[in-house]
Automatic annotation (TrEMBL):
Pfam families: ABC_tran. Residues 285-302 have a biased composition (Low complexity). This is Iron complex transport system ATP-binding protein. InterPro entries: AAA+_ATPase, ABC_transporter-like_ATP-bd, ABC_transporter-like_CS, P-loop_NTPase. Residues 3-235 form the ABC transporter domain. The keyword Transport applies. Keywords: ATP-binding, Nucleotide-binding, Transport.
Length: 302
């Protein structure tokens, strides 16, 4: 199932924080949202899982506006791992994961064998099967995150919407979670702060800056030193990962703040200036010009 986000604007108390965003998350692909703090990633994701209503624009699931779906129908299509947590559940881990089956149940209907099997599998996927009978409130932050992810898996959605799913996870569980997402090949829209993780796991990236989508494309063409300087304000080199061949970003921790880009400097085809809406056009994807951050030697990625 694909997600089409068309000219989406979202506001809090009249203050627009996502402005005319257009992006496509293709069926079966992992689509990443990256951007600085406050750029609008969570807000955009909240409109996809219907927590927020846009002031303009639409979110289409295979052409159907998500707001036209009943809550149960929407929950069968979209499972979310939001940043905001709806209270601490006084439930066992297994009961929390079983909540993922609710959209498929008639009122007061209990679990059947198929539900129990799906819940067990979801718990095993996130390595929490041994904790199934523990209280959710007794878990560490990373363990809770994995249980909530298992709940999303148990929901068997067409689309997974994950807001910073690697928060709280140690490095092994981060790697495993992202590997699991790749192995599942389910349509996934994911926000990530870790740009190296985004480069490794995402088929396409959309970069948000001040509520605008300013660049879109495969990680290799989007994550350039120029964009990292301009959008994130950091000096960085982009190399090839020696083990995987993915883009590998090395930040300059000694001089983190990049100088403002030179006026009239070269810009890749997919990169609109911050503050100006970018309309992704898959047909125009291709190798983008790679410009080094100010003060570094220019380099080309393959
Ligand atoms: N409930 C809210 N009420 C008012 N303003 C909000 C609310 N939630 C977010 N904002 C504001 O909207 C803007 C975008 O926030 P959002 O959480 O979408 O950004 P983000 O890119 O996900 O940030 P981060 O990387 O820090 O999680 C920010 O300026 C934020 O302060």
């Amino acid at each position: 199932m694909k997600i089409d986000i068309e000219d989406l604007s979202v506001a809090y108390q009249g203050h627009t924080v996502v402005a005319g965003a257009c992006l496509l998350a293709a069926s079966g692909e992992i689509t990443g949202l990256v951007g600085p703090n406050g750029s609008g990633k969570s807000t955009l994701l909240r409109t996809v899982y219907r927590h927020l209503k846009p002031v303009a624009g639409r979110v289409l699931l295979d052409g159907t506006d998500v707001r036209a779906l009943s809550p149960a129908r929407a929950a069968r299509h979209v499972a979310a791992l939001p940043q905001e947590r709806s209270g601490d559940f006084e439930l066992t881990v297994r009961e929390v994961v079983a909540m993922g089956r609710t959209p498929y149940k008639r009122a007061f209907a209990g679990e059947d064998a198929a539900d129990r099997e799906l819940v067990s599998r979801a718990l095993a996927d996130v390595e929490m099967a041994d904790h199934a009978e523990r209280r959710f409130t007794e878990l560490s932050g990373g363990e809770r995150q994995r249980v909530l992810l298992a709940r999303a898996f148990a929901q068997q959605p067409d689309v997974l919407v994950l807001d910073e799913p690697t928060n709280h996870l140690d490095v092994r569980h981060q790697v495993e979670l992202l590997g699991l997402l790749r192995a599942r090949r389910r349509s996934t829209l994911i926000s990530l702060h870790d740009l190296n993780a985004a480069a490794a796991v995402c088929d396409r990236l959309h970069v948000l800056h001040d509520g605008h989508v300013v660049a879109s494309g495969p990680p290799r063409t989007v994550l350039t030193p120029a964009l990292l300087a301009e959008v994130f304000g950091v000096r960085a080199a982009v190399a090839e990962h020696p083990l995987t061949g993915d883009p590998l970003i090395a930040f300059d921790h000694r001089r983190p703040l990049a100088a403002a880009p030179q006026a009239g400097s070269e810009r890749s085809e997919q990169q609109a200036p911050p503050g100006r809406p970018h309309r992704p056009d898959g047909a125009r994807d291709g190798a983008a010009a790679v410009r080094a951050a100010p003060g570094t030697a220019p380099r080309q990625t393959p």
